[in-house]
Amino acid sequence: MLCGYVSGDGERGNHCVAITHQLVEIAEFKHFFEHFTFDKTAWSDRGKRVEKYITVVIALDLVTVAM
User: Residue 53 contacts by C-beta under 8 Å, 6 or more apart in sequence?
Assistant: First the structure.
């Protein structure tokens, strides 16, 4: 709940609105290409390794405001 002072049309007061967030996933796929990643491991501080793909997620953050 978001509350604040709002003045408009000569009206003054404390108006509250409820805000909700919803994450909507549109697509998820793997993009294939070779690239290096660096993760610290037990046997190496650098931890350089070759990865062959990344996972791509396309999503929308829907914000709904109810007054």
Answer: 30, 31, 32, 33
Report residue 35's pLDDT band, with 50, 70 and 90 as the boundaries: very high
- Rounded to the nearest integer, the mean pLDDT of the chain is 81
Q: What pLDDT sits at residue 15?
A: 63
Which structural domain, as residue segments, surrounds residue 59?
2-66
CB-neighbour burial class of residue 15 (10 A; exposed 0-12, middle 13-18, buried 19+)? middle
Helices (H) and strands (E) in the chain, counts: 0, 3
> What is the number of structural domains in the chain?
1
∠ CA 63-61-58, rounded to 5°: 160
